[in-house]
Amino acid sequence: VSELPPIAKDMFDDLRVAVASVAEPLHAAGHRLYLVGGLVRDRLLAADQTPDHDLTTDAPPERIRDLVAGVADAVWLQGERFGTVGLRVGDVTMEITTHRAEAYVSDSRKPVVRFSTELAEDLARRDFTINAMAVDVADGTLHDPCGGRADL
């Protein structure tokens, strides 16, 4: 866990209003919300920005759905059984996914995926260290348990 560099605190200004409107009911219900993956990677690199606005939370998908329904302009649930709720607030489209963890059984190469309440478990299952970083929406803290920032 580390503080973002001063310049990075403003990296998400274009998303601040939309994300804050979604974060408010989640936080009020006792849940955390994080910007995650390529969105964080690309903003730290100051690269062409990914069109993906991915977030992750400890809230289960049905709770996400219920909490964002009152603030989102549109909600879609095609990925809900996999833990993902898609939504649009203004002109910002985003996906919020419940933290996930995976384990492998001895006779299979396919992992068993389950929902988790732990951010570190979710980040540990991502494909590359540079995609395993998250920014806490509440305080701007960068979570980088896999060392992705150093790998950039």
List keywords for this structure.
disordered N terminus; single chain; 8-stranded mixed β-sheet; 5 helices; 152 residues; alpha+beta; Beta Polymerase, domain 2
In one word, what is the shape?
Answer: globular
How many DSSP-defined strands?
10
| Multimeric status of the protein | single chain
Q: Please, what is the average pLDDT?
A: 89
Organism: marine metagenome
GO biological process, one term: tRNA processing
Keywords: Magnesium, Metal-binding, Nucleotidyltransferase, Transferase, tRNA processing
Cofactor: Mg(2+)
How would you explain this protein's 3D organization?
- The chain is α+β, with helices and mostly antiparallel strands.
- It has one domain (2-146): Beta Polymerase, domain 2.
- The chain is 26% helix and 28% strand.
- It is built from five helices and ten strands; from the N terminus they run βαβαβαβββββαββα.
- It has helices spanning 16-28, 38-45, 61-68, 119-124, 148-151; strands at 2-3, 33-36, 54-57, 74-76, 84-89, 92-98, 100-104, 111-115, 134-136, 141-143.
- Strands 1-10-9-2-3-6-5-4 form an eight-stranded mixed β-sheet. The protein has a two-stranded antiparallel ribbon with strand order 7-8.
- The protein is globular and about 45 Å long.
- The two termini are 16 Å apart.
- The model is unreliable at 3-8 (pLDDT under 50).
- One of its GO terms (biological process) is tRNA processing.
